[in-house]
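Hello,

Our lab assistant flagged a job as stuck in the queue for most of the afternoon. It eventually completed. Since we weren't sure the result was trustworthy after the delay, we are filing this so someone can double-check. Below is the sequence as submitted and the structure that was eventually returned. Let us know if re-running is recommended.
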Amino acid sequence: MTTTTLADPPVLSARRRWTVLAVCALSMFLVGLDTTIVNVGLPEIGRGLDVGTRGLEWVVDAYTVVLASLLTASGALADRFGRRRVFRCGLVVFGVASLACALAPSLGFLVAARAAQGVGASMLSPVALAIVVNAMPDPRERARAIGVWASVFGLSMAAGPVTGGALIAAFGWRSVFWVNAPVIVAALLLVAVFVPESHGQRARRLDLPGQALLTLALCVSVGVLIEGPRIGWASPPALTGYAVIGAATAGFARVELRRSEPLMDLGLFRRPLFTTSTLGAVAVFVALNVTLLLNTFYLQHARGWTAFETGTATLPMALGATLCAPWSGSLVGRLGPRRPLVLAGGFTAAGGLCMVTVGQGTSVLLLLLAYLLIGIGFGFANAPITNTAVGGLPPSRAGVAGAITSTARQVGSAVGIAVAGGLVADVGPAGLAHASRPGWLLVTACGLFLFVVARAARAATPPARKAA
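-- returned structure --
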């Protein structure tokens, strides 16, 4: 193996450091936005391309599964070839794929273009975090920057349905992809001017066997979740899927443990706090995506709302995330992650409980309250989870840890879409509310799991920090 020894990065001025953060946050806002902006438009896409609910799940999950599969490999590429270079390449791929989505003539073409978007997005998420960590040498400043970065990403996920509803009402469903073009152009210019090049301390080799096995395991897992209700959970195709998932997962673990430079550093999972926070990231994004998809089909199919009205209904969610995400980042910087995690768990669980008994005539005020509570929970969750996973590690491992955490988020998104879609696919408008109730119980359970993450964070916090 060739080891590259690099000089310490130049110290940037405070203004330049926070400008770098702003540029990376802009790009990450776009990645998060495209994870959820499509949800509210799925019924319109289905009518435009003449496809049913089960096929529409792939429009969302093609993006999230590919993104989740390639995040760690993209982080390794960035460490070897330069983070700014890979970041700019990701912006170009993402932009071209967005244009392809906007012009898609069929469902198959749209799903393929969404997968290409996922390829581009995978070059942005972990690389952006590594750029931010590299630009912030002071641990306290780095903690605040990570909080801001995670907050912006979380805010973009919550803002997606509102933005999508407004765009679809004004310009049709293709506009949710056209809107990416000017943002991509602006981001490319800003990166060229403000973001310095940086590399990892070691140039890691690509782990192609591990990459193939990880992609296979994730794709088949999501495929079984989406198609399981249709083909039957005990059918021969489903049983074959289970066998493939088990073999791919076991093979991935075997390959990674034997390689000197693995795709995913499984040794990080020996840290209980890292493992718990990674599972917390999965739980948060399962809850968010179950909420968004169930909300879309319940309001548009069961209650006859338009895409714009459905997107507007999520305004309390976006408001809660907007107000609480920066507050959460500040709390993490001053007091550590435990208190924001407790707040995140409590509000998320309360929002899910509000919807457990949802029916055809449930009060709009109760719906809005539930969305507000879930939005507040989501806003409080992202900064402490990211900080918990990355903050206790040396900067040299921040990129890998950030990639794993980002992978966990996208896995949660894909699983949430697949589970929610499985609950409501092939269900008539009259039965949608009742069919969605197990999904709201899942949202509640995800909120309660954040209390476990908070407990782990408390146990790992030094006594002096606890007393703060």
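-- support follow-up --
The delay was a queue issue, not a problem with the job. The result is valid. The CA atoms of residues 178 and 244 lie 38 Å apart. The mean pLDDT is 82.
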